[in-house]
Amino acid sequence: VGKSSTINAIFNTEVSTVGYSSDPETSTIKKFEIDNMILWDTPGLGDSPEKDKQYAAEIANALKAKDYDGTLIIDEVVVLIDGSNRDMKTAYEIIENIVVPFLGEDKNIVIAINQCDVALKGRYWNYDQNQPDDQLISFLESKVLSVKNRIFESTGLVTQPIYYSALHHYNVSKLLLTMLRNMPERKRFLFSDSLNRNPEVWKKNDALEDYNAEIQKEVKISL
Fold first, then answer.
1. At what angle do helices 172-181 and 3-10 cross, to 10 degrees?
2. 73 and 67 Cβ atoms separated by less than 8 Å
3. How close are the terminal C-alpha atoms of the chain, in Å?
4. 59 Ramachandran zone, left/alpha/beta (phi>0; psi -120 to 50)
5. pTM for this entry
6. 118, 125 Cβ separation under 8 angstroms
7. 137 CB contacts (<8 Å, ≥6 apart)?
8. Distances (CA, A) of 167 to 4, 93, 113, 145, 164
């Protein structure tokens, strides 16, 4: 679903794999250190029922892991969904059966629909302006609402899914702001040293908010 391109769009691209969760011989969850932050990159589900069972157990164990104070190690979960895929069954199963039950009390979760540029097989994406046309926006908004309603109906959790394109750097600022707002306030400033320095990454967004200004505000409040 474009996890690597998403990581590289948001963060400094010089990320280094420094280890694995628990047993390096069996675990497939990769650990990245990005300045003051740790990012756990889990494998995607949906390719093989047998592997899905293994991955689901690993993800659940990672979400339950605590530090020496008894605090959950993971502050936030970002679930990436393939915007070009109409079959959302696997995504919903991950959210409902694996993520939500082990999220902790704060339920800090971000639902992000990547590859919005190919949600309608590339139609109605304006390649000159690098953004969706009205027809595609309408489709994406209906998809966001559908995902939001489905998650609420099955878990009772209110989420605010967003759509973006890591490849075309569209709504990357919106994704970052959504991630910040779902992080514990005291930790939001940790993002400040870790972000991609390329200004082109942050330019193209929908016009609902001034996301870049709001990002600065969140970081300053946290500091």
1. 80
2. yes
3. 33
4. alpha
5. 0.90
6. yes
7. 206
8. 10, 26, 13, 23, 9
